[in-house]
Amino acid sequence: MSGIRLENVFKAYGDATVVRDLSLTIPQGEFFTLLGPSGSGKTTTLSIIAGFTMADRGRVFINGRDATRAEPRERGLGMVFQNYAIFPHLNVFENVAFPLTVKKVPKVEIAKRVADALEMVKLTGFERRYARQLSGGQQQRVALARAIVAHPPIVLMDEPLGALDKNLRYHMQMEIKEISTRLGMTVVYVTHDQEEALTMSDRIAIMNGGVIAQMGPPREVYERPQSAFVAKFLGEADLIRVERQSGCLVGPGSLPVRAGEDNGSLQKGQLFLRPEKVTLCDPGTGEAGCTLRGKVHQVAFLGNVIRFEVELEDGTIILSDVANAAGIKNFPVGAAVDVTWLPEHARLLED
Amino acid sequence: MPLGPLAKWLLLAPAVALLLVLFLTPVGWFISASLMELGSWQDIWDEVAAVMGTGVIVRSIINTNGISLAVTLLTLVIGYPVAYAMTRARGLTFTLILVCVVLPYFTSTIVRTYAWMVILGRNGIINQLLLGMGLVDEPLQLMYNRLGVLIGMTYVLLPYMVLTLFATMKSVDGRLLQAAAGMGARPMTIFTRVFFPLTFHGVMAGSLIVYILAMGFFITPALMGGPDDLMMAMLIEREVELSHNWPVAAIMTIILLVITLSLYAVYTRFSDSSEERLA
Amino acid sequence: MMAGSFLRAALLRSVVFVICATMLAPILIVMIVSFSGDGYLKFPPQTFSDQWYLRFLTNARWVGSLWNSLLIALMSCVVATAMGFLAAYAMVRGAFSMRKAVMALLLMPLIVPHVVTAIAIYFMSARFNLIGFKPWIALAHAVVALPVVLIILQSALKAVDPNLERAAMIFGCGRAGVFRRVILPLVTPSVVSALLFSFLISFDELVISLFLAGIRSETLPVRIWNSLMLEVEPTIAAVSTLLIAATCLALVIEWGMRRYQEHRFGAKA
């Protein structure tokens, strides 16, 4: 049994509970992301897995062994730190060799494995440089090479790309993903960047207030959020107040609304839609039962997408993203429109 | 990686033990044992009253504070322009000023005092010069009086003032001064209305540290002062070494400690990172 | 207006020049006088010689005091730096509710007049027959050196990113390994500074030595003091020049060490 298992892990600092009875299982080879706003407990969770922080209660299993009380060095993990934590007194070679040097691996073996790791992160030829002589991206690669050089089955990554600019970040996301897949590593990745989490992960745990708000594959958590928090945290979300009147759900203006999975139990709540699933059409042409009325409040040109802000009768603002493709229909500000969607794209969320 | 509570105290233990054994215990023991020699509380109180009524002791307290105040003002007046020049200087000029401040700072107090004795002595350099030029007929008394004490102590304490002021001045945002100049303020106005107020806490911190250190001075006044320049530290030493009058030494010590420690409490208010400044 | 600011700048420059010259002058004068070939103090010396150095080096009491000072300073700086390092590490990485109180205690010897410290230790030492015992004097010097060591090392350790320590731990180091492989290399220049400055503090210390040295362990500053009580003789200039040279050497080593470290990996520890 490999991978990671947390059982009812609890951590508090004084009165502040940071992680609240958290349980999760990460199977071997999975790219698992802890996503959440700052203070959500994701970094503490990672720190508990690494062994830098001891949980107050609960147990930590790493590769099937109870590692709750183990020293960090006994856990056999690799790690990439925020701001890289490259040893400034060691050059690139010595930095990458560090995990092997400490374990007293023979010199020849070290040289070979460091060369392999550096090749993997495309840093061959930089062996003699020091951290200050490297760009942010290069430092990131050194940190990555150091984390994988000893072939740890599990690698932890704490916001490793936070300090990089946007283009480089996307590039590194792809590289990290590729390397982790190639080496079959389990990766526990902490980030507050939802796009990054969606791009890279096999599974995402969205944390909030020390608990996991929702856990699942990127597509599932994005399209089928179980709470307004998750819906909003994973990108733009349209949330429409709805309630049940004589068996039927109605939205603003007492217009009936439909959602894919409606078992009839929800009395009052919110209808969730992603802006790209919302279409606009001329008044009266929207599909019956999935249409609300409003007027265009604002139009934003985002390049690949045109974003319409529509104000519904009760003042709710609904976003509708329309791909900037040939033949799109333009609605000027102030125009009356119907907001419509397919029932299977809508979800009901309890309050 | 935070340290556990045990590890933390274990690491602190040697240093704390050193201070306990060679600082707190001796100071506490010396004071309490010396006072106890006197007998009851009433006797102690009588002795305190007697000490406070002794002319020599009262004069030494006045002298100490007077000299400390004068030295503080002197170091401030002399040190301020130097610190200011340091913040403006670059490259070699800066290094040269720094050397002129730091080299004396790290040179032994006794060596620095000796140097001034060579200069100010009856047969010292200044008197040789003055006599040689025929400006005076007989050597001037530049030492073994208040003048000597002030010159010597100011010299020894000046680096503390300069370095404290420099630390403050360096942190003044130059853009504020540019903004003031841009709004048409005259250089003098910029100095009195912007720069000086911004460096005021440095002035206070520097003055307090110099005053505190001057209060406990012993070597320089002992070597360069005259009979009228008896300071508290010297008196305490004299009570112990010559008169073996431990109770009086203890009472004087308490007075000296109360003054310096309360000034230190004020000092910590004027410098957020007092630790760093002292370095 | 322009002329005014030019004049002001010129005035400031000359004032600062005079002050700086005055700061340096006594030290230079002592050094020059120490090479005097004259029989008594005269400036500038009419002739030059190494007579005062010879007199110093051939006098058993002077040389003995030099050895005493070196021995005591050596012990003292090692003790102060070691203890200060541990304490600084605890202060930087430990979570303290009473950090301020602990720090105030540790810095106290800097504020309390040395005469008080000296007399208090003397009072106790006399009872345990420790007067003149060199390790004891070294420990007493360590008390006054400790705050300085602590300040230097604390700021150095604060500059070490805690993630570097975490990285070392996750990659296989225990506490000792983290210390040896990461912390120590990063703060070496500061440790050297701490050693040098605590050495200087002990080497130059007079007041405590005055009380604790006894006859057995007269240190160089005490010897100077005793000698100054009699007359201002040029032998002292030679001794002083040696002390100044030691200070300069320490400062140059310290500066060079820092430059090297910065040059090597750009860290300002």
Automatic annotation (TrEMBL), chain A:
| Chain segments annotated as transmembrane | none
Q: Single GO molecular-function term?
A: ABC-type polyamine transporter activity
- Catalysis: reaction(s): ATP + H2O + polyamine-[polyamine-binding protein]Side 1 = ADP + phosphate + polyamineSide 2 + [polyamine-binding protein]Side 1
Q: Which InterPro entries match?
A: AAA+_ATPase, ABC_SmlMolc_Importer, ABC_transporter-like_ATP-bd, ABC_transporter-like_CS, Mo/tungstate-bd_C_term_dom, P-loop_NTPase, PotA-like, Transp-assoc_OB_typ2
Keywords annotated in UniProt: ATP-binding, Cell membrane, Membrane, Nucleotide-binding, Translocase, Transport
The UniProt entry, under SUPFAM superfamilies, shows:
MOP-like (SSF50331), P-loop containing nucleoside triphosphate hydrolases (SSF52540)
> What biological function has been recorded for the protein in this entry?
Part of the ABC transporter complex PotABCD involved in spermidine/putrescine import. Responsible for energy coupling to the transport system.
Extract the NCBIfam families matched here: potA
Q: What is this protein called?
A: Spermidine/putrescine import ATP-binding protein PotA
Q: Which organism is it from?
A: Chelatococcus composti
Primary gene name: potA
TrEMBL record, chain B:
Q: Which InterPro entries match?
A: MetI-like, MetI-like_sf
Mainly localized where?
Answer: membrane
Assigned keywords, A-Z: Cell membrane, Membrane, Transmembrane, Transmembrane helix, Transport
Domain (ABC transmembrane type-1): give its ranges: 61-267
User: Is-annotated flag, keyword Transport?
Assistant: yes
Hey, which family's this protein in?
Belongs to the binding-protein-dependent transport system permease family. CysTW subfamily.
Please identify the protein, giving its name as recorded: ABC-type spermidine/putrescine transport system permease subunit I
> What organism is recorded for this protein?
Chelatococcus composti
Q: What is the lineage of its organism?
A: Bacteria, Pseudomonadati, Pseudomonadota, Alphaproteobacteria, Hyphomicrobiales
From TrEMBL, chain C:
Q: What is this protein called?
A: ABC-type spermidine/putrescine transport system permease subunit II
Q: Which UniProt keywords apply?
A: Cell inner membrane, Cell membrane, Membrane, Transmembrane, Transmembrane helix, Transport
Keyword Nucleus included in the entry's annotation: no
Q: What's a GO cellular component annotated to this UniProt protein?
A: plasma membrane
Looking at the UniProt entry, the stretches that span the membrane are 12-35, 66-89, 101-124, 136-157, 178-201, 235-255
> Which Pfam families does the UniProt entry name for this protein?
BPD_transp_1
Regarding protein family, the annotation reads: Belongs to the binding-protein-dependent transport system permease family.
Q: Which GO terms describe its biological process?
A: transmembrane transport
Membrane-protein topology: Multi-pass membrane protein
Q: Where in the cell is it found?
A: Cell inner membrane; Cell membrane
**Primary localisation category:** membrane
InterPro entries named among the record's database cross-references? MetI-like, MetI-like_sf
Protein's organism: Chelatococcus composti
